[in-house]
């Protein structure tokens, strides 16, 4: 990786270049980028539609996942004209979602089926019924004194808005492991979504480092509201969970695809765009993350079509297994480290196709301030902002940046069966790619 001093020198060069050129020159190039995607580009939306409709449910290791890698290879080589393309094999989890059924049993004998879905990496009930009374939890603090032996724990913390995902996602990802040693029989999780609906949302459910979690499934937000309300009136109700989800003993094999345009001045300095290929089994994975993969490809296409010559090497990696273990990106990082490759930064594209809002920047405050001074005059007129990311994310590559899109509607689709091409706004999607291309152009 490049040292802090080297990267400050590179950014300072960008400042000097911006000052030495007429401001309108940079603005004109940005205008060309936006005009290209708004008025000239006919491939972005068409490619996204093809990925969604021909290769849905791209679980890592699945047939559709493998075939979409071949399709992306064709697009990059034959349509975009990229000469430097290669694949990386990687072991990925081999998880079968099976079939899941959840039934609410009222004390008066009434039974109501609740829309439910298996959670990734979780072993279900082996096709057996688990029947138990339910205890509701709405915050992590409640776990300290929770009594749940032989009960089903119902995690019902509710997302307040599209920016509160990380506040509540622990219920799905860690909830089951946190109550296993308390004697819980199973776990129900409210779908991590800030939208009411009858569509359940899946996601990874990790066991933790030393224990195997009890069976866990998600139910829709409407079902969670209904269960919570009836629990207040019927203390004796039970829930039946039956899930055939399971982890298969042998890992599956997936492929990353890597493509680049070599830099004309500093070919050893690499600007990386990363996007994950895999999606869940219950949708076309349009927002999450076919849109990100196509955006990365279209950035390279824009450089070719607009005859932009990158000073630094511009590389994309479309990688495996973001949804469960980040296996693909970890393998990419390992191989890059073996080659002693240095990245100026990794821009992760995994925010859907909503209206572009800007970029999260994980840097120290001094460097971030320099970035603001250089970039804001060009980003702000396009409605884009830089945000200093003060949180920590265990990301295999550093420095880590991420694209931000408006999240008002994103979690209506995220990990649910509505995440399909029909719920993509084509114009907004192309604006997203223009914003990303502009950021890369300015940082190059």
Structure explained in plain terms:
With 444 residues, the chain is an alpha/beta fold. The protein folds into two domains: 285 residues, Zn peptidases (Aminopeptidase), CATH 3.40.630.10; 153 residues, Glucose Oxidase, domain 1, CATH 3.50.30. Helices cover 36% and strands 24% of the residues. It is built from 13 helices and 18 strands. Helix 9 links the parallel strand 13 and strand 14. Helix 1 packs parallel to helix 11 and helix 2 runs antiparallel to helix 13. The longest helix is centred in the middle third of the chain and has 20 residues. The two termini are 17 Å apart.
State the CATH class of the largest domain. Alpha Beta
Strand element count? 18
CATH topology of the largest domain: Aminopeptidase
Number of helices: 13
CATH architecture of the largest domain: 3-Layer(aba) Sandwich
Beta-strand percent range: 15-25%
Radius of gyration from the CA trace? 23 Å
Total tally of structural domains = 2
CATH homolog superfamily of the largest domain: Zn peptidases
- Which stretches are low in confidence, meaning pLDDT under 50 for 5 or more residues running? 18-22
Kindly, what is the distance between the CA atoms of the first and last residues, rounded to a whole number of angstroms?
Answer: 17 Å
- Give the spatial strand order of the biggest sheet: 1-12-14-13-15-18-16-17
Mean pLDDT value: 94
Percent helix, as a range, is 25-40%
* Shape designation: elongated
Instruction: Give the class from helix and strand content and strand pairing.
Output: alpha/beta
């Amino acid at each position: 990786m490049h040292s802090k001093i080297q990267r400050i020198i590179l950014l300072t060069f960008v400042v000097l270049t911006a000052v030495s050129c007429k401001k309108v020159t940079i603005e004109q190039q940005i205008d060309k980028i936006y005009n290209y995607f708004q008025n000239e580009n006919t491939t972005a939306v068409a490619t996204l539609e093809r990925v969604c409709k021909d290769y849905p449910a791209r679980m890592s290791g699945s047939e559709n996942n493998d075939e979409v890698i071949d399709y992306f290879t064709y697009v990059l080589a034959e349509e975009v004209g990229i000469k430097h393309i290669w694949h990386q094999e990687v072991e990925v989890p081999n998880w079968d979602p099976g079939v899941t059924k959840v039934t609410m049993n009222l004390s008066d004998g009434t039974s109501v089926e609740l829309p439910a879905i298996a959670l990734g990496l979780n072993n279900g009930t082996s096709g057996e019924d688990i029947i138990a009374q339910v205890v509701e939890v709405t915050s992590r603090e409640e776990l300290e004194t929770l009594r749940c032996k032989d009960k089903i724990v119902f995690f019902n913390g509710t997302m307040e808005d599209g920016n509160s995902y990380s506040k509540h996602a622990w219920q799905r990802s860690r909830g089951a492991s946190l109550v296993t040693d308390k004697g819980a029989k199973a776990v129900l999780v409210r779908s991590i979504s800030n939208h009411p609906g009858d569509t359940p949302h899946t996601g990874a459910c990790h066991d933790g480092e030393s224990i195997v979690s009890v069976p866990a499934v998600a139910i829709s937000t409407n079902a969670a509201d209904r269960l919570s309300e009836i629990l207040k009136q019927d203390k004796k109700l039970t829930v039946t969970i039956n899930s055939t989800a399971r982890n298969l003993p042998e890992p599956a094999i997936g492929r990353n695809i890597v493509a680049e345009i070599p830099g004309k001045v500093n070919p050893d300095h690499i600007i990386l765009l990363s996007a994950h290929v895999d999606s869940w089994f219950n949708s076309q994975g349009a927002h999450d993350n076919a849109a990100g993969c196509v955006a990365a490809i279209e950035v390279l296409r824009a450089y070719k079509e607009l005859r932009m010559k990158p000073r630094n090497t511009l590389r994309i990696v479309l990688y495996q297994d973001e949804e469960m273990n980040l296996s693909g990106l970890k393998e990419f990082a390992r191989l890059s480290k073996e080659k002693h490759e240095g990245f100026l930064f990794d821009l992760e594209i995994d925010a859907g196709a909503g209206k572009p809002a800007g970029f999260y920047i994980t840097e120290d405050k001094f460097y971030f301030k320099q970035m603001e001074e250089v970039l804001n005059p060009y980003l702000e007129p396009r409605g884009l902002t830089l945000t200093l990311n003060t949180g920590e994310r265990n990301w295999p590559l550093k420095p880590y940046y991420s694209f931000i899109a408006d999240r008002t509607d994103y979690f209506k689709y995220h990990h649910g069966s509505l995440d399909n091409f029909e719920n993509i706004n084509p114009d907004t999607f192309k604006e997203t790619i223009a914003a990303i291309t502009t950021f890369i152009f300015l940082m190059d």
